[in-house]
Design goal:
321 residues; mainly beta; Neuraminidase; eight-stranded mixed sheet; four-stranded antiparallel sheet
Length: 321
């Protein structure tokens, strides 16, 4: 069954893969890219649609192709050449992973399977490895498991380690700077959380505490520059338009970056090495693409629109050629 869908009058927690992040932040092992992408979601009923657009020039997103099945609350990440969308539900929780080649257009191809079916989690990618961190399972419980794959091949995911029991689990979002990956928001009971946890992508092992967000939230979205993680929007109490940031080199809590043009959660994020975008979202449902320059602070500006209103989708970015 769906868990706390906004269609059913959500007042608690929502999906994680929508904010999922999706990572697309640049990093030590990540070469960046100008093509932003979204996968699945609910534009008007659950969809299999893949959208794409230019992060530098904006405008209206185009139709890239389709996933193998209609899907929402999934997670996506990329290595700038290939994007892999994983998990989600409609209504069953799936362990399926699909991939596309970012510089082309066309339908997604089967990649392999996660270690278990889950939704409401996030994805974080580097040039060699993709992570899918936490989520919610068909058993009605949050999962601490972090899966990883080799982005350049195909095959089933392996167990990376665990998130902490008290930190981000269901409804979290993820991002990576190519060296480190973070999970943020959500908690084990599918409620609001302010925790941030971190792992080193090139190793395996359990996550450790990395400070707190400026407010508790769920269904946020995030992406990264080489040095900074940016956390955008929320569904939950407080400021739904809040943007936080945290430098990877610091050990303290996140700080206030500015505000979105429209407060919302259930959106997707992607980035070049310098610019982060939040795409779509809920409350209200929108097609807006917001942008911020990550190494500054300030309010977001309107960059363009998705190919229709959408939320509970995932996002990432890569090279258009």
């Amino acid at each position: 069954m769906y868990k706390f869908s906004p269609i059913q009058g959500l007042t608690g927690y929502g999906g994680g893969a929508t904010g999922l992040g999706l990572v697309s932040g640049g990093g030590v092992f990540w070469s960046g890219g100008d093509r932003g992408m979204t996968f699945g979601g609910v534009p008007s009923g659950v969809t299999d649609r893949i959208d794409y657009f230019s992060i530098s020039s904006g405008g209206t997103a185009g139709d890239f192709g389709n996933l193998g099945t209609t899907n929402w609350y999934n997670a996506a990440q990329s290595n700038s050449i290939r994007a892999v969308c994983a998990g989600g539900s409609n209504p069953a929780y799936t362990n399926k992973m699909e991939y596309i080649t970012i510089a082309s257009t066309g339908d997604a191809t089967d990649f392999g399977d996660l270690t278990g079916g889950k939704a409401y989690g996030g994805g974080a990618g580097t040039s060699f490895r993709g992570l899918y961190m936490g989520g919610w399972t068909a058993a009605g419980a949050g999962t601490r498991v972090m899966d990883y794959i080799d982005n350049s091949t195909t095959g089933d995911a392996s167990d990376f380690g665990d998130l902490t029991a008290s930190g981000p689990l269901a409804g979290n979002a993820n991002t990576s700077n190519g060296d480190k990956a973070v999970a943020f928001g959500g908690n084990a009971s599918f409620g609001y959380g302010d925790g941030i946890e971190i792992v080193t992508v090139a190793t395996t092992g359990d996550a450790t505490d990395f400070g707190d967000l400026t407010l508790t939230r769920t269904m946020a979205a995030g992406s990264s520059s080489l040095t900074r993680a940016v956390f955008m929007g929320a569904y939950g109490p407080g400021d739904h338009n809040r943007i936080d940031y945290k430098d990877y080199s610091t050990s303290g809590d996140a700080s206030d970056f500015g505000n979105l043009t429209v407060g919302r959660g259930y959106g997707a994020a992607a980035s070049t090495l310098t610019r982060c975008v939040m795409m779509g979202g809920y409350s209200p449902v929108t097609n807006i693409i917001d942008k911020v320059e990550m190494d500054t602070t300030g309010d977001a500006a309107d960059l363009g629109d998705l190919n229709g209103n959408n939320y509970t989708h995932s996002g990432c970015a890569g090279a258009p050629s």
